[in-house]
Amino acid sequence: MTTREIQDEIIRLKKEKNICVLAHAYMTRDICEVADFVGDSFGLSEQAAKGDAETVIMCGVRFMAETCKLLSPQKKVILSSPIAGCPMAEQIEKDELIALKETYPGYTTVCYINTTTDLKTECDVCVTSSSAVKIIKNIDNDKILFVPDCNLGDFVKSQIPEKQFAFVRGGCPTHLRISVKDVEAAKAAHPDALILMHPECHPRVAALADFLGSTTGIMAYAEKSEHKEFLIGTENSIIQHLQFACPDKSFYPVSKDCVCHNMRATTLVDVLNCVNGTSGEEITLSEETMAKARRCIDEMLRLG
Ligand code: 13P
Ligand code: SF4
After folding, report:
1. What is the mean pLDDT of residues 187-196?
2. Nearest-10 Cα torsion for 39, 120, 127, 194
3. CA angle 59, 64, 68 (to 5 degrees)
4. For residue range 54-71, what is the model confidence (pLDDT) as tens digits?
5. Is 200 in the pocket of ligand 1 (CB under 6 A)?
6. Which of 32, 63, 212, 214 to mutate for ligand 1's pocket (most ligand atoms within 8 Å of CB)?
7. How far is 281 from 198, CA to CA, in rounded Å?
8. CA distances from residue 154 to 20, 179, 207 in whole angstroms, order as listed
9. Three-state SS for 78?
10. Whose CA is closest to atom 7 on ligand 1?
């Protein structure tokens, strides 16, 4: 089958079976083209919750499908590729977090959305990369224990110097592949380009950015900007999406190595096999786990 034939079959089956397909912006172009929504993980889960589709296929990684299930417990939620995890989301075990909370009494425990549902059951407030600063500013406590991404945590701390932060070692192995040398070499090759980076990058690297933001934040910035050349410091898949959205502008990777293999795990044929019911993994979470994990998400919505 050609790419076009596979895409047509996915669209036909989606309609026939009332299925909603979500694609994180790090998915490849062929998948984004057949998705009902493309964006970041929480935004996608919110869109799916608003719709009437009985089945939702999350093309992304496991924590994203779990978030989708938390927001739509009555729907059948399928993770497009059962092997697609997120190394950062799985960096801290619940037992470790319980011990950490004892080390930091009086702190509010804030978790990045990129965490397992199990870990969320022990957190007070959840944040996304785009909402972290606003939500943590609104928390009625000056002491914040932030897990698991100390790089995003460092960025938030720089924006809210009046609060006290505790971090754990952690971070996204994909964004951590971008080095200061990579940024310097890319800037030397494209001196007129603006540098747009994700706060999951190391603070020394992030300090060199002209703009720091979430994936959708970076895309919106590049699309609206009058500038013509951009160096992209996040997962390289969005370079192609930006080239399609703005063919009159030029986009270059800061590092050729900023590729997330977990995000690459899903192929267009996986999506076809999910809509025809022969592949993917249905996300199942106990009522108790969902109720406990949902609290930190509700708190994020209240504070945001
Ligand atoms: P956002 O899409 O929320 O910016 O997250 C980036 C990321 O690494 C997702 O796994
Ligand atoms: Fe996880 Fe980083 Fe990959 Fe996102 S890019 S899924 S945070 S490893």
Report:
1. 98
2. -60
3. 95
4. 999 999 999 999 999 999
5. yes
6. 214
7. 29
8. 36, 17, 11
9. strand
10. 215
- Asked whether 183 and 198 are in contact (CB, 8 A), the reply is no
What is the CA(195)–ligand 1 centre distance, in A?
18
Indicate the pairing of strand 281-282 with strand 229-233: unpaired
Residue 169 has pLDDT above 90, yes or no: no
| Of 86, 42, 100, nearest in space to 68 by CA | 42
pLDDT in tens, 233-274: 999 999 999 999 999 999 999 999 999 999 999 999 999 999
Residue 171 Cα distances to 77, 89, 113, 153, 228, angstroms: 27, 9, 13, 10, 31
Separation of CA 200 and ligand 1 centre (Å): 8
Sheet of 55-59, strand order: 37-39, 19-24, 55-59, 76-79, 281-282
Distance CA 126, CA 113 (A): 6
Dist. CA 104–CA 96, nearest whole Å: 12
* Residue 16 alpha carbon to ligand 1 centre in Å: 31
Taking the C-alpha atoms of residue 186 and residue 197, their distance in angstroms, rounded to an integer, is 13
Report long-range pairs for 71-79 (Cβ below 8 Å, ≥24 apart).
Answer: 71/45, 71/46, 71/297, 72/45, 72/48, 73/290, 75/48, 76/282, 77/282, 77/283, 78/274, 78/280, 78/281, 78/282, 78/283, 79/280, 79/281, 79/283
Q: How many residues does the chain have?
A: 304
Beta bridge partners of 77: 56
Q: What is the value of pTM for the model shown? A: 0.96
